[in-house]
Structure formats: structure tokens, C-alpha cells
Predict the structure.
Amino acid sequence: MEKDISNIEDVKLLVNDVYDRVRKDDLLKDIFNNIIQDRWPIHLEKMYTFWETVLLDNHTYYGSPFAPHAKLQVSKEHFDRWKSLFFATIEENFSGKKADEAKWRAEKMAEMFLYKIKYLRS
């Protein structure tokens, strides 16, 4: 793939593809579907603005990304699976500096979320 992430349409492709995979994944689908239920369009819109803010420096996301995840019953295994789906989506659709940045940011976000969840449980 020769195209990098460069606009909101690319962000939407990334987000839609990742969460299509999540919704079918045996480990993750129940966690996401039980919480999000029929609010997937709202969740996806929030993810578009989050990744647009992070990757394209277009500040459209307002909020705290960790808060909705704080009480989830998830472990490193769940975050590793999410990252593998995220990375696979990037690698199949994009290449370049922003694609690399997206993978790096996903890695760091997963590490931070897992650390905070473990801290809150102890």
C-alpha cells in the first residue's frame, strides 16, 4: 500500500475497518457489543474525531478517552488483540509517517489504558 493517512476519509476508513474487525472478533466482540449495543454510529463518530485530532492535528475531539474504559473487565490479552486488529488494518490500507504514527500511538494508548486499569483495580 502506498497511501498514507492524510484526511478525514482515511481516518474513517481506518476506524470503520478496525471496528468491523472488533465486532467479529471472538475475544472482543462481546465486550464492545454489550457496552455499545445499538450506539455504534455514535461510537464511530467519536473515534473519527479522536483519531482526526491525534493524527491530523485537526482538533475535533473533546473528552477523556480513558474514562469509558476505566471499569472494563479487560486484560493485556484484550489490548494485544485490539492492537493486532488495528495494526493489520493499517498495514492493509496505509503506509507512511502517519500510518507509523497511528501504530505508535495505538501501542502507547493501549499500554497506558492497561496500566491505569490495573492501578484502579489494586
Q: What stands out?
A: The mean pLDDT is 92.
